[in-house]
Amino acid sequence: MIATISQQDAATDLVATYLKTITKQGFTGDTDASYASRLTAATDNSIYQQIPQGIIFPKTEKDIQIALQTASHDPYLSLTFGPRGGGTGTNGQSLTPGIVIDLSRYMREILEINAEEGWVRVQTGVIKDQLNDFLRPYGFFFAPDLSTSNRATIGGMVNTDASGQGSLVYGKTGDHVLGLTTYLVDGTKMSTTPIDIDKAQLIAEQDTVIGNLYSTVLDVALNNRDAILDKFPRLNRFLTGYDLEHVLSDDLLTFDMSRLITGSEGSLGIVTEAKLNITPIAEFKTLINIKYDSFDSALRHSPFLVDARATSVETVDSKVLNLARQDIVWHSVSDLITDVENKDMQGLNMVEFNAVSPEDIKDKVDTLCRLLDECVQHQKNGVIGYQLTSDKSDILKIYGMRKKSVGLLGNVKGSQKPLAFAEDTAVPPENLADFIVEFRALLDSHNLQYGMFGHVDAGVLHVRPALDMCDPEQEKLLRVISDEVVKLTAKYGGLMWGEHGKGYRSEYGPEFFGEHLFNQLRIIKSAFDPRNRINPGKICTPIESEDSLVSVDGQKRSWFDKQISIDVKTSFNNAMTCNGNGICFNYDQNSPMCPSYKVTGDRRYSPKGRAGLMREWLRLQESKNIDLLEVEKQLNQGEVITWWERYQHSRDKSKGVYDFSHEVKESMDECLACKACTTACPIKVDVPTFRSRFLNYYHSYYARPLKDYLVGNIENSAPVMAKFSSVINPIVNTKIVSKLIEKTVGYVDTPTLSSPRLDKRINKEHRFNFDKLSTLSAEQQNEYVLIVQDPFTSFYEAELVESFIKVITALGKKPILLPFKPNGKPQHVKGFLNEFKTTAKNAAQFLNSLSEINAPLVGLDASLVMCYRDEYNSILGDDRGDFEVALDHEWLAKESFKPFADQIKNETSFTLLSHCTETTAMPSAATVWQTIFSDLGLKLNTTATGCCGMAGTYGHEVQNQENSRALYNMSWQGVVNKHKPEQLLATGFSCRSQVKRYEKFKPKHPIELLAKIL
Questions:
Q1: CA distance 200 to 333
Q2: How far is C-alpha 721 from the chain's CA centre?
Q3: For residue 106, which of 236, 385, 503, 795 sits 20 to 30 Å off, Cα-Cα?
Q4: At 110, which helix (H) or strand (E)?
């Protein structure tokens, strides 16, 4: 029996009242205290989980001021706040038990640029890659480079004083901050820029909130100058929390409060705006990928590479390289990082040179290459080979692989996962190799696996030990290793937190600073936030406060996960393994993952959000002593509850009776089931699969809408309707019937059935005859191609199947149209898993029966062909058999088109828009089409696009119309409008249908064009 779930950890009445109050007072943004949204904000890219009381999404600075001013009066003085940007932190900086102030949803405007003076002014919700895309046409970029640059916000970068690749040359975020706008805990607005020390002292004399702050900070910074300089290490990465050193210039003539706020992790105020200096783009780049026989060799060679005047030196170890080989990302870099014959590549250094002129770069590159040749020839320094590229797109691909390292490490098999908790250590680069030897010895002494990558030029290495945090003994190891790493970094003159800030490691602050200096930090905190209400527990607490600092022993995600049985966790592995890296928040609108998040900006509707909700749903089910896997078995055998019980539960739902399942269902309903997450996510979070299982559970308990039954049965109804297409089409297309379908079913723009239907378009010799085929020799059978039908092309786009038959014939093969067998994909999407298993079993049995015929099986629709490969494996297991269905381009890739080139005269240049499922699951598809067209003497351009907004039936559902159109406008409309209709080609049936309904023409499939010109 599936039971309802009561609301967990409900927002307090005080928070609910507060959210209503600020709305009445003019707050124009969103407020949300739903459990689902709070869960989504309860995690970041760390191992910790802290469920907040509520979230506010301000649209303006005035909204933030209203929120803070309201909270500075009774009865709201007990409320605390935590600012949040991209949520990419690895140490829980943005996690809070209070109210989250999320600036990433709306405060994303680039306000002003002054190219002549070299600065830009932005709201702090702006994403790093968004800013650089804006700056590129002006010839500038914002220099600090992060692996999470496609989702990290400027506010997050400011609050953690972020840095990354190339920091030796370009510095950290703080080196580029020219001014900040910060709202203090009482709502006071403070604008900060570098000013003369005399002016700062005049401000400090004023009896105002800001005057008091200036007085306090000046007193601490000036009176403790020698101690500060002695304590802060002389490192490129010396992130310590409050940057007391750089508040004052070296000559003590300039004061800059912005440097104190930068790196303060949101514990001093809410930063809403930043003025940043920008760097001219160095147009000329060369990247040398140096391969080593060991990772130790790569580390020990790095100081030599820095001395070669490189812009940056990045490194990855063999574990990261091997994980990359198993990921979709390797497709883009495999020819740029090839293996060395008879050598085992155990480490890779990526050395970048860049300059504003080719002369400035040539001598450096040539000199290094000569030295590397000598190393290879004489087997010196562990160098076994190197590759060089100056192509900008190739360089970006390699760095894309490097940036994905964070997520890739989380995709290792087994329950022990590489974790971020002591992974941004910084030591002087000359000490790095020896430091790592001891670090490795520490981890090896506990028999731990780990992966390594990082910025060796700055002495920063990311080391992620693999631990199972659900194992109490291994959880204790986290504390042991953390303590040892603090000691180890001190031994080698470094820091435990070289790049990613303190967060839950704040407890080590007193040990690093010493009692006196740490108390100076507390004095500053007291001046800014005397009641400890802004990101409490991070960095330090007010001087008079008895509040504790957050600790590495803080509440972790594993605390929740431990309450889920091992069998359930294993079964729902595709949701449980999400490590929070958040690549699904990718700013790039042309990235296929994740359309529902891109169009809504709501993180509940992202793979990370859905995985988090699913984890909690599983936990809550088990808290009710429900054996989920046993219930699923029962569901797959038929009904679990009676229709009357389902009616009663549905009636309760209509009355507003709370069940967390409804919040999960709302999130799942927004999923387009495009499956981009299953490949684009480094962890391979598979939302469509666990979504189907959830819907299967949910609708055993709550009634289904009529449209689910229509979609689930489309493969049975479409063949029947197709026989009467000449009658059905005119009726369905009338306004009255269209409105009726919209009102009763909730569907719009019903697609038109093919007329004449497919069986009227094909000749007798193309019909399937098993007895005839089975009597032929294997060689004769090899001349045939068996076309696997799908419901979309066969019944709604029969002209495409007809064109494919023509292409196959033109290539000298004999096409045979197999009888239509339902695939079951629509059933899977809507969670009819019992019915899907039956459909899959029947289809697999039929396709396996053709195994004795020596002819390829080929399909035309990517989503259904991928269903044979993925969902069939999941639901049938060994019963699936070994049949293989290729997509059209996969089969065509083996055929020769060059003999036709002389016969074709076509000057038109074509542009291909790819299906999103195909783009992520088959990244080489577009290249295959380009090769085919090239062989024919035709030019085919490809362009990156995200989801078109149709995705099966999603774009036909009434409630999705606004989002469907917005997705199309976001990614497809611009490309479509740049081309003539005859120039556009699209591989997806859904995509072609979407263009047709908005642009009133239907792009051809590449097959249709080939059929026309061959």
A1: 52
A2: 41
A3: 503
A4: strand 110-114
Domain made up of 282-411: CATH architecture: 2-Layer Sandwich (3.30)
Beta-bridge partner residues of 55: 32, 100
Phi-psi region of 116 (alpha: psi -120 to 50; beta: other; left: phi over 0): alpha
Beta carbons within 8 Å of 446's beta carbon, 6+ residues apart: 465, 477, 480, 481
d(CA 759, CA 780): 25
Residue 532: which region, alpha, beta or left (left: phi > 0; alpha: psi -120 to 50)?
left
Q: Which two tokens stand for residue 663?
A: 């919040």
Give the bridge partners for 348, in sequence order.
291, 316
Q: Which amino acid is at 717?
A: S
CA proximity to 419, closest of 464, 449, 462, 452: 464
State the chain's mean pLDDT as an integer: 91
d(CA 986, CA 970): 17
H helices within 126-173, ranges in order?
A: 128-135, 154-160, 167-170
Dihedral over alpha carbons 291, 293, 296, 300 (to 10 degrees): -60
pLDDT (tens digit per residue) in 681-721:
888 899 999 999 999 999 998 999 989 999 999 999 999 99
Structure tokens at 987: 């591989």
Residue type, 104: S
Classified as helix, coil or strand, 279 is: strand
Q: In sequence order, what DSSP letters do the residues of 706-750 get, joined into one string?
A: HHHHHHHTHHHHHHHHHTTHHHHHHHHTSHHHHHHHHHHT-B-SP
Domain boundaries, the chain: 282-411, 563-703, 714-892, 898-1013
Location of structure tokens 């890659």: 129
DSSP 635-700: HTTS-SS-HHHHHHHHHHHHTT---HHHHHHHHHHT-----THHHHSTT---HHHHHHHHHHHHHH
Distance (Å) of CA 716 to CA 684, 744, 755, 823, 846:
32, 21, 19, 10, 17
Task: Give the amino acid at 756.
Answer: P
Q: Could you give the CA distance from residue 847 to residue 400 in angstroms, rounded to a whole number? A: 39
Q: Which residues contact 20 (CB under 8 A, 6 or more apart)?
A: none
The pTM assigned to this predicted structure is 0.91
Does the pLDDT of residue 573 top 60, yes or no? yes
Rounded distance between C-alpha atoms, residue 884 and residue 413, angstroms = 26
Contact indicator for 312, 168 with CB cutoff of 8 Å: yes
pLDDT digits (tens, 9 = 90+) for 876-907: 999 999 999 999 999 999 998 888 887 777 77
The predicted-structure confidence for 227-267, as pLDDT tens digits, reads as follows: 999 888 877 666 778 999 999 999 999 999 999 999 999 99
Which residues 6+ apart lie within 8 Å of 567 measured at CB? 629
Q: Residue 894: enclosing H or E segment and its boundaries? A: none
**Rounded distance, CA 770 to CA 293, Å?**
56
User: What is the full DSSP assignment across 305-368?
Assistant: HHHTT-SEEEEEEHHHHHHHHTSTTHHHHTTTSPPPTT----EEEEEEEEESSHHHHHHHHHHH
**Before 756, cis peptide (omega within 30)?**
yes
Nearest-5° angle of CA 461, CA 464, CA 468?
Answer: 170
- Domain 714-892 CATH (choose: 1.20.1050, 2.40.50, 1.10.10, 3.40.210): 1.20.1050
Q: What is the pLDDT of residue 407?
A: 66
Structure tokens at 944: 């990156």
Copy the structure tokens of residue 627.
């054996």
Residue 263 phi, psi dihedral angles, 5° rounding: 95, 5
Q: Residue for token digits 């989002």? A: 963
